[in-house]
Design brief:
Strand 1, helix 2 and strand 2 (about 55-65) form a beta-alpha-beta unit. The chain has about 240 residues and is an alpha/beta fold. The protein is globular, with a radius of gyration of 20 Å. The chain has helices at about 10-20, 45-55, 75-90, 145-150, 215-220, 225-235; strands at about 20-25, 55-65, 90-95, 110-115, 135, 150-155, 160-165, 180. The longest helix is centred in the middle third of the chain and has 13 residues, at about 75-90. Helices cover about 25% and strands about 20% of the residues.
Length: about 240
Amino acid sequence: MQLYPCTFEQYAAVAATERTMFDAVVMSPPWNAAAGSPGSRLDRWLEHVWLAWRLLRPGGWLVAVVPDSVASRSDAQYQQARVFIEHHGSHTPLPACAFAESRSAVTCRIVRLAKPLWSGRPEYLLTTPQQPAVRVERPVFTGAAAAGRPVQVWSGGWGGRDRVVRYRGRCVACRWLPWGCDDGDNDPRGVLGEFGAGYSLDPDEYGMTRPQIGLCHRCGNDGEHLRAAHQHAVSHWTQPGARAP
């Protein structure tokens, strides 16, 4: 571990100049829960999140503890932040007692953001990469692996037979990274764990055509997220024989 005796703003400025990039950032940016208190900067956490976002490599993750007001404040700055957060990930409330040990009664949320691997086609429209498979001892499902090793093969099948896994895209609800095995065994209780693409929305099952929509098993088991994902998916699907929008 290396310590830097400076502010995060100072470090980020140097890192940007040196083009230092990170696969993940986990942070608890400074914010003041007492609205209107003397000298308070309720937007300081936003500044830190934007700086951290710029330091992420494509496919990288950012996780931050932020004020609960990110879900409800109506001023322009917070509305823009909320749109950005919900486009690139999610924000979920922490339990009211999350900081009880520090004798703090503040209410907070966890923001999870995933930086896109590429621009253009939305990553929740699943694809099946055809690059040559990279042999690995055990598959890795990080954003960096999705960018550099989207097709992996390892000896994990019955009797030591090879299995192939491919990066499929992002979950439409939370931007998690679904991967799928060529043998169709995408059970989250198996090697894929929470990265299995088995809960993704298949247009064929709804009598529609066009791409599968990524959905992780957590969101697929959440009624609200599932309904929202289906509504989003329908906007990309067409009836058989209909002209694509």
